[in-house]
Design brief:
Helix content: 25-40%
Structural class: alpha+beta
Order of helices and strands: EHEEHEHEHEEEHE
Mean pLDDT: 86
Radius of gyration: 16 Å
Low-confidence stretches: 111-118
Shape: globular
Number of helices: 5
Strand content: 25-35%
Distance between the termini: 14 Å
């Protein structure tokens, strides 16, 4: 049975049960499949933002990690502000407790027969859980850096993704900084089939 786990590396049980599989999945997706220049430590992709200030939403089945991404408050150091400030086009990087960054969106290649709008069913469940997390934790807006291709996929799902500026070439991909408001449209789009959050087992 698919479920979404909400956890932090500060939680020893979550870290021991899921962290290794999460970092290995990220290496397969970003390092091997997409060819990004990411830090690889023995087949695991991690960076300086994988600390106790980050939260993780992981899509799991029988403790197997099928997907996930990282959520981080903009009141702490985060990727858009520190690594990709050029994508802000001179605008101030958000820094507010109700604005969080989402990054490292990764989905394993599972049962593509359930694909919808280019995202498989697992990705749609994870996106919906991310909206639910925002509602439950007082988050008004997510910001992110996405490839132009990923941005198109988000729009195809029905999200109203807003850009800070046009895409720029970042490494091998054209990338864009954007945000998604957690408003009525987003909740209607993503929570048509809500998936309750589960505590880490």
């Amino acid at each position: 049975m698919l479920q979404v786990i909400d956890g932090s590396l500060a939680d020893r049980r979550f870290a021991l049960t899921y962290a290794d599989a999460m970092f290995r999945l990220r290496h397969r997706v970003f390092g091997e499949r997409l060819g990004w220049q990411v830090e690889n430590r023995d087949g695991r992709e991690t960076d300086c933002y994988d600390d106790h200030d980050s939260r993780y939403l992981l899509l799991t089945e029988q403790q197997q990690v099928l997907g996930g991404w990282r959520l981080r408050p903009t009141t702490r150091p985060y990727m858009l502000a520190d690594v990709f400030p050029q994508l802000l086009y001179g605008q101030q990087a958000p820094s507010h407790p109700r604005v969080w960054e989402v990054s490292r969106f990764a989905i394993d290649l599972v049962d593509e027969r359930h694909a919808r709008f280019g995202f498989n069913a697992a990705a749609r469940l994870l996106l919906g859980a991310t909206a639910r997390y925002a509602l439950d934790n007082g988050i008004d807006r997510y910001v992110m850096v996405a490839s132009a291709g990923a941005e198109r996929l988000y729009r195809n799902v029905g999200l109203q993704v807003r850009r800070f500026g046009p895409p720029q070439q970042v490494g091998k991909a054209r990338s864009v900084a954007c945000w998604v408001d957690i408003d009525g449209h987003t909740c209607q789009t993503l929570l048509g089939h809500p998936l309750p959050l589960a505590a880490a087992a």
